[in-house]
């Protein structure tokens, strides 16, 4: 009887201990994933398949584009982008550094035409507001004849240059120089004709007022054209390191990628059924197998949208490194172990079954 009592007491004690362990003892739960190292900010300069130049300044911490600039050109415009010479002699650029220049034949031609037209109108105004003398009329006529001769000569030269350009015997720059010179000669003819006609006909006050208004409008257009041409000087919006040079991805011609590596992030996917176990400020351990080092990080943000990876629903989270990570490179893949806190044994088992069921 006494042995039975002892045996029963031992069994009851074991059961009580097991109940206490199951209900009150907590064990750590971890979520595993793989992430990619990214800079806190990056700037990408690229051209799409339609020839549109795009400048994107992205904040990877907030997963948002803080600056997005698009430069479009008219069809037939010979737009080109030229990176600054010796740009890649150093792997760093600084805020405000000139990266390259976009050239547009249509914009440059428009600017030359506006400047020439302004010259015409100013010459007209000068003639209309001065007295006319026979000597001035004779000189104006001679200037007009000379301007027409120079224009005809340049026209023949440009036509020959166009044939050579179509056959790719000369460069775009040589043809542009010849074409722009033709425009200048054409405007010289207009100026000379306007001077001559003004001298022989005279002008009324209404005509003078009209010319003044035209000059003002042209000056405003030229100011806008100058601003647009100056915007074609591409400058860096950040201090950073050049992490990518000329590549083509998804039909986009990427000229340059500059990363602000003063702080690095890691972006990693978490399957949606594990998302309830992950929260902001959770700690995680990152392992870089390529260099055999481990790093500590903290979750900074969790996306509020689902993305498909390998036909599975995932949500991306972003974590910030706690300490120096200067030995890491942007684009590195790292194994991640997220510390999702302590859970009871029944909860741990329930989560394991959920993982098995989801897989």
Q: Quaternary state, please? A: single chain
Question: Helical amount among residues, as a percent range?
Answer: 40-55%
Could you give a short account of the major beta sheet?
Answer: 6 strands, antiparallel, barrel
Strand residue content: 25-35%
Radius of gyration: 36 Å
Low-confidence stretches at least 5 residues in length (pLDDT < 50)? none
Measured between the Cα atoms of the first and last residue, the distance is 53 Å
Q: What order do the SSEs take from the amino end to the carboxyl end, as H and E?
A: HEEEEEEHHHHEEEEEEEEEH
Kindly state the number of beta strands.
15
Basic shape: rod-shaped
Category by helix and strand content? alpha+beta
Mean pLDDT reading: 78
State the helix count.
6
Give the strand order of the largest sheet, numbering strands 1, 2, ... along the chain: 1-10-14-12-11-15
Structure description:
With 359 residues, the chain is an alpha+beta fold. The chain is 42% helix and 34% strand. It has six helices and 15 strands. The chain has helices at residues 2-24, 105-128, 134-166, 172-201, 205-230, 345-358, and strands at 26-47, 53-59, 64-71, 80-83, 92-93, 98-103, 233-235, 240-244, 247-249, 252-271, 283-288, 293-302, 307-309, 312-321, 333-344. The strands form two sheets. The chain has a six-stranded antiparallel barrel with strand order 1-10-14-12-11-15. A hairpin with a 2-residue loop joins strand 9 and strand 10. Helix 2 runs parallel beside helix 4 (172-201). The longest helix is centred in the middle third of the chain and has 33 residues, at 134-166. It starts with a helix and ends with a helix.
């Amino acid at each position: 009887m006494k042995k039975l009592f002892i045996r029963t007491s031992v069994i009851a004690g074991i059961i009580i201990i097991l109940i206490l362990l199951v209900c009150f003892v907590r064990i750590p739960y971890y979520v595993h994933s793989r992430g990619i190292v990214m800079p806190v900010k990056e700037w990408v300069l690229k051209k799409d398949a339609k020839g549109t130049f795009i400048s994107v300044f992205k904040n990877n911490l907030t997963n948002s584009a803080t600056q997005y600039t698009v430069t479009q050109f008219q069809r037939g415009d010979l737009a080109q982008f030229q990176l600054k010479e010796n740009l890649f002699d150093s792997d760093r650029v600084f805020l405000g550094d000139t990266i390259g220049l976009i050239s547009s034949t249509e914009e440059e031609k428009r600017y030359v035409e506006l400047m020439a037209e302004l010259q015409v109108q100013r010459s007209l105004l000068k003639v209309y507001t001065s007295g006319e003398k026979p000597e001035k009329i004779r000189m104006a006529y001679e200037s007009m004849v000379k301007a027409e001769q120079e224009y005809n000569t340049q026209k023949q030269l440009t036509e020959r240059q166009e044939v050579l350009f179509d056959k790719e015997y000369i460069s775009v720059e040589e043809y542009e120089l010849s074409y722009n010179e033709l425009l200048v000669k054409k405007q010289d003819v207009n100026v000379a004709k306007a001077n001559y006609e003004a001298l022989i006909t005279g002008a009324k006050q209404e005509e003078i007022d009209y010319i003044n208004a035209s000059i003002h409008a042209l000056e405003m257009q030229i100011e806008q054209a100058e601003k647009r041409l100056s915007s074609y000087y591409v400058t860096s919006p950040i201090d950073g390191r050049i992490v990518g040079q000329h590549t083509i991805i998804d039909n986009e011609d990427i000229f340059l990628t500059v990363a602000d590596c003063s702080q690095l992030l890691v972006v990693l996917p978490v399957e949606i059924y594990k998302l309830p176990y992950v929260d902001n400020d959770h700690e995680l351990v990152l392992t870089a197998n390529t260099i055999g080092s481990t790093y500590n990080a903290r979750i900074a943000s969790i996306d509020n949208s689902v993305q498909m990876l390998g036909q599975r629903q995932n949500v991306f989270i972003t974590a910030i490194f706690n300490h120096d990570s200067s030995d890491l490179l942007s684009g590195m893949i790292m194994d991640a172990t997220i510390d999702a806190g302590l859970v009871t044994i029944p909860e741990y088992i329930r989560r394991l079954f959920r993982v098995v069921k989801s897989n």
